[in-house]
Amino acid sequence: MNDSQITPQATIGKFNQLNIVALADNGAYLDAGELGEILLPKRYVPELCKVGESLKVFIYRDSADRLIATTDTPLAQVGEFVSLKVIEVNKMGAFLDWGLPKDLLVPYNQQHTAMEVGKYYLVRVFLDQLTDRLAASSKLDKFIDIWPAEYQQGDKVNLIIGGKTDLGFKAIVNDLHWGLLYDNEIFQHLRVGKKITGYIKQVREDGRLDLILTRGSKNKVNDFSDKLLAHIADRGGVSSLHDKSSPELIQSTLGVSKKTFKATVGNLLKKGKIALVKDGIKLL
């Protein structure tokens, strides 16, 4: 058998590209390598598909604990952090709505604090190696890298907003490290679980990361220019915001500080892209 004929090992809790090996009244059977043949129920099978065709499917266990495939997209895969809502609590633990027919379990020994129905919690989805079942944990620290982060000031990073602290918000950096966003440098609404782009403000001597949501100085002006131009264009080419507008109004409308707003306006004026008019800004 050559390499092109080898069926890749399918992974539980993730999307896989699998070949159809048989079609039946109840659906399509897919070759999942060492996991065997897995059923894709009929309601998910595309019309006119054939044996040998490849389908992108997510693999998990159904309510009868059987491996099953779906073309539905869960809110997270194994190895990802996500904020999910608790819809039931029973003797097994808390059950989260993650977008699939079978809810995701957080066992009691994986809960950082006791979970309550109706509340959202930031969790990490994982595959229990002992039971081969999918589960989630709100004990996030055990999934964070213990080694110091190797970042440079100004590096662009992916953030997932964590809990609130006295100084600001904790955020998970690139799914690997904790960092901190300071309250006095946040000019937009943040919530736990929100995914957002940020930047490394500094790497402290102890290896901890200070974060910021916009680049500094000249880059900050450039990063915001396109957003301001789009804001003006969306309002027929004239915005009512101006240098006398309150910092609160600017922040709520554009998500930036008044200082950034004024610096960007000055930069666009010099480039001839906008003009100041009575009580507003006009797009040229």
TrEMBL record:
Pfam families: S1_2, WHD_CvfB. Coiled coil: none annotated. InterPro entries: CvfB_fam, CvfB_S1_st, CvfB_WH, NA-bd_OB-fold, S1_domain, WH-like_DNA-bd_sf. SMART domains: S1. Residues 11-72, 77-139, 152-214 form the S1 motif domain. Belongs to the CvfB family. This is GntR family transcriptional regulator. The gene is yitL.
